[in-house]
Design goal:
Elements (H helix, E strand, L loop, with lengths): L7 E6 H11 L12 H16 L4 E5 L7 H5 L15 H13 L4 E2 L6 H14 L3 E5 L13 E5 L4 E3 L1 H8 L6 H8 L14 H11 L2 H7 L7 H8 L1 H11 L21 H11 L2 H6 L10 H10 L22 E2 L3 H14 L1 E8 L9 E9 L2 E6 L16 H13 L4 E4 L2 H11 L7 E3 H9 L7 H9 L6 H5 L13 H22 L2 H4 L3 H21 L1 E2 L2 H26 L8 H11 L17 H9 L3 H26 L6 E2 L2 E3 L9 E3 L11 H8 L7 E8 L2 H9 L3 H8 L4 H10 L8 H15 L4 H8 L3 H14 L1 H17 L1 E3 L5 E3 L8 H37 L4 E7 L2 E7 L3 H13 L10 E6 L2 H4 L1
Family: Belongs to the DNA polymerase type-A family.
Enzyme class: transferase
Pfam family, one: 5_3_exonuc
C-alpha cells in the first residue's frame, strides 16, 4: 500500500514491451528452437517488478487485436503498420504463458487497445486516491501522467514524469493530445495537419491553449502554407484528436482489488522456466537449479535475493567460428583439395547458384561447398565479366561435373542441402545424375516444426544460429538496378554463395540431432527425405496438355464472361468495370444500399467471395452473377491461358513444382502451375481436366483414396458403428443418416443423405451450426439440432475433438497418426475468432496431415514396386488424395492393380483404406 493506505497499481504495457524487447535483445531460441528473445526480456522485467515489490497490485495489459473502435472512426488507422517480424509471431503466445506462470493477471479486451485499458485502470486508481505506475515508454500514454500517475521506461529503467513529457512535447501532459492531433503520427497513420511538426504544434498549443482554439484562430493568422493547411485539414485534426485520446471509461474486465501482488507457484514457474531454458532467471528468482524446493524456502529465497539494475543479457553462448572469409575456386587442382576434404570428413554442404528459379530451365552459374563451419568455397562457372571488372579464369561446367561425380555418388559421404530437390534438378540438367546420400535442412526442420515458422534458410539461420546471412538483394541489387547473378563479380558471389553452404552445414549440425529428441526421425527418414527424388522425377516428367483444347476453352470462357458481364451491367443499371472490387462495392453498398460488408483499410467496401456468397444466398442476382464471372475469369487466367504459356513447346508438357515445406499439415502444394486447385465438381473443372492428355499409345491412370479423412476419423475417434460401416463397404453417408436421424437404410431419400454427408465432412473441419445451416439452407437452430444428434450418436467424435483442442493448448501442436507435429498458432489467443479458427485447425490437422503422410508413404514405395513389376508407368501428379500416372495402354490394368494394392497397404488402420482407380485418354476420363 501507499502511505495513504491506497493501492499502488503497476500496469505493464505488455504489447509495447514485447516489440521493444524483441529489437533490444539479440536473437535467442529455447530448447525447442523457438525464438524467445522478447520472452526472455519480458520475464526479466517481470522478475524485477515482483522481486523489488514496487507496487501492491500488478497486471500486464495486452492488445487483443489490431482492429479497434478507432478503425470505425478512421478506417486507415494503423493501416501502414508493417507486418509483425516472423521471429516475433511465436513469442506472443509464450509471453502470455509467461504471465500466467508468474501468477500475474494478463488482461486484454476486444475492440480496445492496451493503452485504453491502461488509461481506464489508471483513472480508476487515481480517483480512488491511489498511485499508478505505467511500465512503458509509449508516448501515447504520456497524456495520463499526473500527481497520481507516473511512468517507467522498462528498458532504460528511468522514470517518466512531467519534466520528461515537457521535454518531449514542449507542453504538459494535459496538452499532449492537442499537440499529437496537430502533428499527426505516420506510424499509426494519424493524419494531423500536413507540414506541422512537433515544434510548430507545441508552439501553437502554447500560444492558443488547445487544438480547437488553434483551429478557430487559423482564419485570422497571417497568410501562409501553415494557415491554409490548418483551415483545409481542420477536420483531419479533429479526427486525429479522437484517435490519440485514450478512453478512460472502459468497464474494467478485472477489478483492481483482484490484481493484488501475490507470489507465484514456484514449482510451476520453475518448470516453465526450465522448458524455456531460462536458467539465469530461475536463479535470480531464487529457484535454484531445478531441485525440489518447498514453497516457503523458495519464497523466502525469492524475497531476499537482490536484482541488479538493467535488463540482463542472454547467457553467453560458446564461441562461434567466424563466417568466412571463403575461397574462390578457379582451377581443378584446388577443387580437388576440397573434394578430398569432403571425402575425409564424410559430410559436406552443397549449394548451387543459377540464372533462374525454374530448376528445369535454369543454368548453374556456380556452386559452393562447405566441409566445416567457416570452411567453405565457391566455384564460379558462368559469370560474365566486364572491361572494368574481368571475371578471370573459370572452370568448364563439364569438367566440374566430372570432378564431382565420384563424390556425389559416394555412399560414404553425406551431401547436405537446403531445399535439396531444387539443387538435385539443377545438377541433373548440368549432367550430374547420381546424387546420394543426401540430407535436407529445410525438411529436417519442417519435420519438427511445421506451422511454427517458415523453413527458408535465412529464417532458420536467424532462429537457430543467431546469424543474418547476406541477402540476394545485397549482391544483385533491387528493382531496376538488379543485375543477373552471373554478372555479380566472383569475389562478391563467393561471400554470398559460400556463406549459404556454410550456414546450411551449421544448420544441419544443430537440427539433425533434434530429430530423435523430437520423435521426428522416422518421419523424416521414411517419408520426407526419400520423397525428394520421387518428386524431382515427377517434376521432370511433367504432364502433356492439349493446347488446341485449352485455346478453345479460353475462347469459350471469354464468350461466357462477356454474356455474364452484359447481364451484370443490366442488373446494376449501368456499365462499370466488373473486375474492379472498388466499383462493385460502390454499386452494391452505396447505390443499391445492401448490407453485409465493411470498409477496408483503404475505405473501399469488401467484395470478397464470402461477402458475395452471403448476398447470393439472400437472392441478390447481381452477386450471384459476379461470382460466376469471377469463377470463369479465375479459370481462364489460372489455367486455360496460363497452361499454354507454361507449356514446353518442345514436348507439349507442363511441369509443376511441388512445395514440400509450405503447409501446416504436411500436405504438398504445387505451383507454376498450381494443379491442385482445379474445381472437381464443376463442368468447367471437368473441361480443364480433359485438356491433360496421354501421348499416343498411352493412357492416364488415376488412383484416389476414398474418404480417407473420414476413415481416419473413424479410426482415431474409435467410432464402432462407423468402423463397421467402412468394414462392410456401406455407403457411409447413408449409414450416418440412418444412425443419426433414425431413418432406415433401404429407400433413404437423397436429401437426408445429403444432410448426413454435410455433417460428416463438416465435422472434420469443425463446422459450426451457422456454417452447416448455410450449407444446407436451413436455420442455424435446426443445424445445431443435427450436430447435437450427431454427437449424441457418436460421442467418441466429440471426445476426439475435445482431446485435440486440449493437446494443442497443452503443447502448441497436435500429432498426426504417423507422428508428425502440426503446430497450431493462436490456440491460446484471447481473440475468440482467432482461437476458434485455431481450434478448428487442431481438429482437422491430424486428419488432413494423416492423409498427407499416408499418400506420401505410398508415393515413396510406388516407383520401386512398379519397377520390380516391370510396369512401364510414370507417376506424374499428386493432388491431395489422388495420384495420376502415365502408363502404356496394354499395361494399364495391371498397373492399376499394383498401385491400388500399394496405396491401400501404405498404413494399417482399424478400418480399411480403399483406393478407386480409373483409366482414360485424359485426366477427366481417368478421374
Amino acid at each position: 500500500m501507499t502511505d495513504t493506505g491506497m493501492p499502488h497499481l503497476i500496469l505493464v504495457d505488455g504489447s509495447g514491451f514485447i516489440f521493444r524487447a524483441f529489437h533490444a535483445l539479440p536473437p535467442m531460441s529455447n530448447p525447442d528452437g523457438v525464438p524467445v528473445n522478447a520472452v526472455f526480456g519480458f520475464c526479466n522485467m517481470l522478475t524485477r517488478l515482483m522481486r523489488e515489490h514496487v507496487g501492491t497490485h500488478l497486471a500486464v495489459i495486452f492488445d487483443a487485436g489490431r482492429v479497434t473502435f478507432r478503425n470505425e472512426i478512421y478506417p486507415q488507422y494503423k493501416a501502414h503498420r508493417p507486418d509483425v517480424p516472423e521471429d516475433l509471431i511465436p513469442q506472443f503466445g509464450l509471453i502470455r504463458e509467461a504471465t500466467a506462470a508468474f501468477g500475474v493477471p494478463g488482461i486484454e479486451l476486444d475492440g480496445f487497445e492496451a493503452d485504453d485499458l491502461i488509461a481506464s485502470y489508471a483513472r480508476s486508481v487515481a480517483e480512488a486516491g491511489g498511485q499508478c505506475t505505467i511500465v512503458s515508454s509509449d508516448k501515447d500514454l504520456m497524456q495520463l501522467i499526473s500527481s497520481h500517475v507516473d511512468m517507467m521506461d522498462p528498458i532504460r529503467q528511468k522514470p517518466i514524469g512531467v519534466p520528461e513529457v515537457e521535454a518531449k512535447f514542449g507542453v504538459g501532459p494535459d496538452k499532449v493530445i492537442d499537440v499529437q492531433a496537430l502533428m499527426g503520427d505516420p506510424t499509426d497513420n494519424v493524419p494531423g495537419i500536413p507540414g506541422v511538426g512537433p515544434k510548430t504544434a507545441s508552439a501553437l498549443v502554447n500560444e492558443f491553449g488547445s487544438l480547437e482554439a488553434v483551429l478557430a484562430a487559423a482564419p485570422e493568422m497571417k497568410k501562409s502554407k501553415r494557415r491554409d493547411a490548418l483551415i483545409e485539414h481542420a477536420d483531419d485534426a479533429r479526427i486525429s484528436l479522437k484517435l490519440v485520446t485514450l478512453k478512460t471509461d472502459i468497464p474494467l474486465p478485472v477489478p483492481v482489488t483482484d490484481l493484488a501482488v501475490d507470489d507465484p507457484d514456484v514449482i510451476l514457474l520453475g518448470e516453465w522456466l526450465d522448458r524455456m531454458g531460462f536458467r539465469s532467471i530461475r536463479h535470480r528468482f531464487g529457484l535454484g537449479d531445478g531441485s525440489p524446493l518447498t514453497q516457503a524456502t523458495a519464497r523466502s529465497s525469492m524475497r531476499a535475493a537482490h536484482v541488479a539494475a538493467g535488463p540482463p543479457a542472454p547467457a553467453a553462448e560458446p564461441a562461434k567460428v567466424p563466417y568466412g572469409p571463403y575461397e574462390t575456386v578457379t582451377d581443378l587442382a584446388t577443387l580437388a583439395t576440397w573434394i578430398e576434404a569432403a571425402e575425409q570428413i564424410g559430410v559436406c554442404a552443397v549449394d548451387t547458384e543459377t540464372d533462374g528459379l525454374d530448376p528445369l530451365r535454369a543454368r548453374m552459374v556456380g556452386l559452393s561447398l562447405a566441409v566445416a563451419p567457416g570452411k567453405a568455397c565457391y566455384v564460379p562457372l558462368l559469370h560474365e565479366g566486364t572491361l572494368e571488372a574481368p571475371v578471370g579464369m573459370q572452370i568448364e561446367v563439364r569438367d566440374v561435373v566430372a570432378a564431382l561425380t565420384p563424390l556425389f555418388a559416394d555412399p560414404s559421404v553425406l551431401k547436405v542441402f537446403q531445399n535439396a530437390k531444387f539443387d538435385l534438378l539443377v545438377f541433373r540438367r548440368a549432367g550430374l545424375e547420381v546424387l546420394t546420400p543426401t540430407d535436407d535442412t529445410m525438411l529436417i526442420s519442417y519435420a519438427q516444426s511445421e506451422g511454427l515458422h517458415g523453413q527458408g534458410m535465412d529464417e532458420l539461420s536467424k532462429l537457430h544460429l543467431g546469424h543474418v546471412p547476406i541477402t540476394y538483394d545485397e549482391v544483385t541489387g533491387k528493382g531496376r538496378n538488379r543485375i543477373p547473378f552471373q554478372q555479380v563479380t566472383p569475389d562478391r558471389a563467393t561471400a554470398y554463395a559460400a556463406e549459404d553452404a556454410d550456414v546450411t552445414l551449421r544448420l544441419w549440425q544443430v537440427l539433425r540431432p533434434q530429430l530423435r529428441i523430437n520423435q521426428a526421425l522416422a518421419l523424416y527418414e521414411e517419408i520426407d527425405r526419400p520423397l525428394i527424388a520421387v518428386l524431382a522425377d515427377m517434376e521432370q516428367a511433367g504432364i502433356r496438355v492439349d493446347a488446341t483444347e485449352l485455346r478453345r476453352l479460353s475462347e469459350n470462357f471469354s464468350g461466357r464472361m462477356s454474356v455474364i458481364e452484359a447481364e451484370i451491367h443490366a442488373l446494376a443499371g449501368r456499365n462499370f468495370n466488373v473486375g474492379s472490387p472498388k466499383q462493385l462495392g460502390e454499386i452494391l453498398f452505396d447505390e443499391m444500399g445492401l448490407k453485409g460488408s465493411k470498409r477496408g483499410k483503404t475505405g473501399a467496401w469488401s467484395t470478397d467471395s464470402s461477402v458475395l456468397q452471403e448476398l447470393a444466398d439472400q437472392g441478390i442476382g447481381l452477386a450471384e452473377k459476379i461470382l460466376a464471372w469471377r469463377q470463369l475469369a479465375k479459370l481462364k487466367s489460372t489455367y486455360t491461358d496460363a497452361l499454354i504459356a507454361q507449356m514446353d513447346p518442345a514436348t507439349g508438357r507442363v511441369h509443376t513444382s511441388f512445395q514440400m515445406a509450405i503447409t501446416t499439415t504436411g500436405r504438398l502444394s504445387s505451383n507454376d502451375p498450381n494443379l491442385q486447385n482445379i474445381p472437381v465438381r464443376t463442368e468447367e473443372g471437368v473441361q480443364i481436366r480433359r485438356s491433360f492428355v496421354a501421348p499416343e499409345g498411352k493412357v492416364l491412370l488415376s488412383a484416389d483414396y476414398s474418404q480417407i479423412e473420414l476413415r481416419l476419423l473413424a479410426s482415431v475417434a474409435d467410432v464402432p458403428t462407423l468402423r463397421e460401416a467402412f468394414a462392410l463397404g456401406q455407403d457411409i453417408h447413408a449409414r450416418t443418416a440412418s444412425e443419426v436421424f433414425g431413418v432406415p437404410l433401404e429407400g433413404m431419400d437423397a436429401l437426408t443423405r445429403r444432410r448426413a454427408k454435410a455433417i460428416n465432412f463438416g465435422i472434420i473441419y469443425g463446422i459450426s451450426a451457422f456454417g452447416l445451416g448455410r450449407q444446407l439452407a436451413i436455420p442455424p437452430g435446426e443445424a445445431r439440432a443435427y450436430i447435437d444428434a450427431y454427437f449424441a450418436r457418436y460421442p467418441g467424435i466429440r471426445a476426439y475433438m475435445d482431446a485435440r483442442r486440449a493437446e494443442a493448448k497443452a503443447h502448441g501442436y497436435v500429432m498426426t497418426p504417423l507422428g508428425r507435429r502440426c503446430y497450431v498458432p493462436g490456440i491460446t489467443a484471447k481473440n475468440a475468432a482467432q482461437r476458434n479458427y485455431a481450434e478448428r485447425q487442431a481438429i482437422n490437422a491430424p486428419l488432413q496431415g494423416g492423409a498427407a503422410d499416408i499418400i506420401k508413404r505410398a508415393m515413396v514405395r510406388l516407383p520401386r514396386m512398379l519397377a520390380e513389376a516391370g510396369l512401364p508407368a510414370v507417376m506424374l501428379l499428386q493432388v491431395h488424395d489422388e495420384l495420376l500416372f502415365e502408363v502404356e495402354k496394354q499395361a494399364a490394368e495391371e498397373t492399376a492393380s499394383v498401385v491400388k494394392r500399394v496405396m491401400e497397404e501404405a498404413a494399417s488402420l482399424p478400418v480399411p483404406l480403399v483406393v478407386e482407380t480409373g483409366i482414360g485418354a485424359n485426366w477427366a476420363e481417368a478421374h
